[in-house]
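tool_call: predict_structure(chain=1)
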Amino acid sequence: MDALNLNQLGQKFDTIVLSHVISTSKKGNELISSCFNALQPNGRLIILNHFTTNKTIGIFEQLFQPIARLFHFQSYYPFENLTVLKDLKKKKALKFGFLNSYQLVILEKT
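tool_result:
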């Protein structure tokens, strides 16, 4: 399945879960848009991912970025990079893990 082309399935979904996918995608905003278009009205998008939450740690994550790219991972990934999220209503957001670097976000299509 190609997550960037979910419309090809010809179906709409109640819930779509993206677990540790966004920071491995070079097209995070396109991925979210594809999911948004595949959601039914009031459908939920659940995202679990590593996000840069601290500016100081972000400096180290940016320095590590060239190595992370070798593993197809973005070590520096601020949540704000997902500009398409403005089209979804944030229902809940939980931060956890070392330095709260992981977030579980539940969004709803309005």
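agent: The radius of gyration is 14 Å. Proceeding to next step.
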